[in-house]
Design a protein that fits this description.
The protein is mainly α. The chain has one domain: Rhodopsin 7-helix transmembrane proteins (Rhopdopsin 7-helix transmembrane proteins). Helix content is 76%, strand content 3%. It has eleven helices and three strands, in the order H-E-H-H-E-H-H-H-E-H-H-H-H-H. The chain has a three-stranded mixed beta sheet. The N and C termini lie far apart (54 Å).
């Protein structure tokens, strides 16, 4: 951080500011001897992400028994995870093998746009899935009328539109910034907080947008998830038989696990105090929610769900 600040000050003081056209992605440069090993590890993780999520989408479309709201949401989540991981992983794999680990300014801004778009959409989609589980467990007799196909489509479209608007507003404010001085990004991808650190112009407007727009929408989605699970857990605890409680909890266990994996690590990444900043921690957390979570989601849903496992066996036997 001090090096970045020194570069910025030097450019400003000497009046020799030069607009940057590309950034140097440091990534895992400190682990030179492990570049090839890391490449294969992340390549395998990415392939597993693609295969797992494509399998979930396929069985959700082909198996008539899975044409329900829950699997409609799950299919969209799997598609989102494919897009989400594809925003950063291919470029990261390229940089692990490249001698010149750079990304253009326009490419970096595009990466930020799609990253925020996918992250925002996933949070909203997870909140919609939480509401779906709430109705299924707390109001099972009204489930088919409350969670109709039309409502499912509206919630999914709302998630995508909300994520897009969040990303669009942040990106428009980002385009107005001027970058000079240090061009090094100590990460394996472009992320909004890192670009704000490299700006020579005031980032006050960007910070206000993040605070008032992104955080407001994010907390609203998180609040819906928390409120849904408070009611869900309260309802489950009122069930007299242990078998009934276990069956009820199993219907939302997979979703709750995914929520904790994704939202928990994203919260650590963006909401911790500045005094706790750590480049290493940033990279580890980003690997968790940007690479591992999209890969683990299909595994979590297939391991916890008998219907998914049955559909996967049918698909395997059909082929």
């Amino acid at each position: 951080m001090s090096c970045l600040m020194e570069d910025w000050k030097y450019s400003e003081i000497n009046g020799n500011e030069t607009a940057l056209t590309e950034f140097l992605i440091l990534g895992f440069s400190s682990l030179q001897d492990l570049q090839l090993l890391l490449f294969f590890i992340f390549l395998i993780a990415y392939i597993c992400t693609l295969v797992g999520n494509i399998s979930i989408i396929t069985i959700a479309c082909l198996d008539p028994q899975l044409h329900t709201p829950m699997y409609f949401f799950l299919g969209n989540l799997s598609f989102l995870d494919i897009c989400y991981s594809s925003v950063t992983v291919p470029k990261m794999l390229e940089n692990l093998l490249a001698t010149k680990k750079t990304i253009s300014l326009s490419g970096c801004i595009a990466q930020v746009f799609f990253f925020i778009f996918m992250v925002g959409t996933e949070i909203f989609l997870l909140s919609a899935m939480a509401y779906d589980r709430y109705v299924a467990i707390c109001n099972p007799l009204r489930y088919s009328t409350v969670i109709s196909h039309r409502v499912c489509v509206q919630m999914v479209v709302g998630a995508w539109v909300s994520g897009f608007l969040d990303s669009l507003v942040n990106t428009l404010f980002l385009i107005g910034l001027h970058f000079c001085g240090s061009s090094s990004i100590n990460h394996f991808s472009c992320e909004l907080p890192l670009l704000l650190q490299l700006s020579c112009t005031s980032t006050f407007s960007n910070e206000m947008v993040i605070l008032t727009f992104s955080m407001t929408l994010g907390f609203a989605a998180l609040l819906l998830i928390v409120a849904s699970y408070v009611r869900i857990i309260s309802t489950i605890l009122k069930i007299s038989s242990s078998e009934g409680r276990q069956k009820a909890f199993s219907t939302c266990a997979s979703h709750l696990t995914v929520v904790l994996l994704f939202c928990g690590t994203a919260f650590i990444r963006y909401m911790r105090p500045a005094s706790g900043y750590s480049d290493t921690l940033d990279k580890l957390v980003s690997i968790q929610y940007g690479i591992l979570t999209p890969m683990l989601n299909p595994i979590i849903y297939s391991l916890k769900n008998k219907e998914v496992k049955t559909a996967l066996r049918k698909l395997a036997l059909r082929n």
